[in-house]
Amino acid sequence: MTERVAADAGMRAADAAALENVAARRRLTQSGPAARFWRSQSWHVGLLILIAVLTVSTWLYAPRFLSPFNVATVLASNTYIGIAAIGMTMLIIIRQIDVSVGAIIGVAAIVAGLLAKAGYPLWISWTAPILVGVVLSSINGVITTFGRVPSIVVTLGMLSILRGGTASITNGAFITNLPPDYMIAHLKLWGINFSFILLVVLTGITAWWMRYTRFGRSIYAVGSNPAAARAIGIDERFVTLAVFAIHGAFAGLAGVLYGTQTQTLAQVVPANVELGVIAAAVIGGVSIAGGVGSVVGATLATLLFAALASALIFLSVSAFWLKAFQGGLILATLLFEYLRRKD
Amino acid sequence: MTNLRALPVHQTVLAAVLVAVAAVILLGAPGYANADNLVNQARFMSELGLIAVAMTLILITGGIDLSVGAIFGLVAVTFGLAFQAGVGIVPAAAIGLAVGVAAGCLNGFLVTVTTLPPFIVTLGTLALFRGIAEGLAQGRSATGFPEGFHALGQGTVMGLPGQLLIFALVAILAWVLLEKTPFGQAIRTTGYNDEAALFSGVDVKAVRFSVYALAGLMSAVAAILYVSRVTTTRSDMGLGLELEAITVVVLGGTSVFGGKGGIGGTVLALVLVQLLKSGMSLLGVRGDGTVVVIGAVLIVTVLIGNLFARTERA
Predict the structure, then answer these.
(1) Contacts A–B by Cβ distance under 8 A
(2) Whole-angstrom distance, CA of residue A247 vs CA of residue A83
(3) Which listed residue, of A56, A147, B91, B107, carries a Cα 20 to 30 Å from A213's Cα?
(4) What pLDDT digit, counting tens, does each position of A232-258 carry?
(5) Nearest neighbour of B128 by CB, restricted to A9, A14, A331
(6) Cβ pair A7:B203 closer than 8 A
(7) Using the beta-carbon criterion (under 8 Å), do B291 and A163 form an inter-chain contact?
(8) Burial code of B35-46, b = ≥16 C-beta within 10 A, e = fewer?
(9) Predicted complex ipTM exceeds 0.90
(10) Which residues, 6+ apart, have CB-to-CB distance to B192 below 8 Å?
(11) Which of B289, B291, B303 sits opposite A149 (nearest CB)?
(12) Which residues lie below 8 Å from residue B204, measured CB to CB, with a gap of 6+?
């Protein structure tokens, strides 16, 4: 008897879900351009409002929060997370994940430091790590697409290999006395941090590319419905592999920015960076089920995190509570997204 | 259905690798088999194993829990603080266990009620739990636990370390639960196809909720055993433990897509990983080198399993 009831309840739930789907599609297709714009941008607007509320309330309490120096610090902090989150967003949209991204960032940073230390021209030490990122991520991509091993397993293995490999080769020794010119993370253009400009420009280009080019759109196609994408002639495996390679380039670049913050660099893989990168992509509005999301959201989320970290300092909250606030923010975003979907 | 047939193949491959590794180690480093060494290995292994067993059940339901390491740290910290507040060692342990279960229940609640992907939900709770642990600890650690408590993590019963006995008991109970009870069947059905499970009368939400709650409990037990062994608490305890546990479970043949897998494979993989870690160190390979090997073994094992699955279907 109870089984019947449960089965009936299940049927009803499935029916309701199907109806809701139809209704959602109708709303999407029948509304005007203004409404459509709002629907596609509402998540970004929400993030902007959140950043604004946080900024204004902190500024009211501590005006120095908006001093040019602090604004520059906030914008420049964590840009490497933001850069890596661009690639991660693309990867999640295509239903893949990379938990080895922190390790790739670490390895790229070490390569950058070693090249600079060995006396190579600085432009080589800034660009070669990007290639390293592409190669490492492409290996993940090949095993995922052709070996049909889930990317979470492949990249979990890659994380172990890179973390252990780095530690056993370098013993965690520091690279010291790097040339001051090498610190590209501190470079400024027109008084604005170069890494922040890079983040904004790359976000813009990638967002445009994903929305308006044939290849960019095929990423969404594969992510939202692989079978349909195949049916219209998109080479799913090629697109997946390409996204892994592009993600690797972003991770490599993130590694360069991470590794050029100081003149001293520990040759270890930083812990838990992958979670920060994935969290930025998720808060940015990407759906883990694939097909939905934008790199603009990921970048806004990175800025939100940076502003939050700085705001807590100005509000005299112990730095030890920072991560708890971040976790609360992630969960609040998720609950909000759930409630929004339910309406 | 190919997955079902692939399972024994995977475990056979794993067992063969295990025997080979054991043989190499015994030939290369005869000193390995001495009792003290084995007892110590078993302690490391059992704490991770408790979490891996719960993680196995979660992966079989098609979920994942990234927050187990953070729960581990949070339990260690709250347990230490409660003890320092003077509530006594047993109530402190009870508080620690309660915190772990509550954390697991929060995961279960969020996963079942909001139907958000577990990967994302537990990523959020990871940050939250680790953050609360850091906030509560404020960089301080608790020490000075009574001698009797240290016996829990350092003592032996009939020559066997206490952790191993607890782990063995938990592993057997989990195996019985998964293979011999309707609830175990419900766990598997949920992972194969949650809609079908719902239609055939499985309370999918209850199944999901309970595996996350169980993971919370197991992380808490592991944390208290660990604190008892190392005699101190820190908020960064268990950092990265989730990835270690998932590695062991996947290596043991449990699919990240749900439905397929079992406790036996996890136990085999756990022993294999431990043998690799300690055996290689005896052969002169440093700890970091073994991490590389474990990562490579993980990828290669799943790759080989895929090859077999394909040939069987053909």
Answers:
(1) 164
(2) 10
(3) A147
(4) 888 889 999 999 999 999 999 999 988
(5) A331
(6) no
(7) yes
(8) eeeeeebbbbbb
(9) no
(10) B258, B259
(11) B303
(12) B190, B194, B197, B198
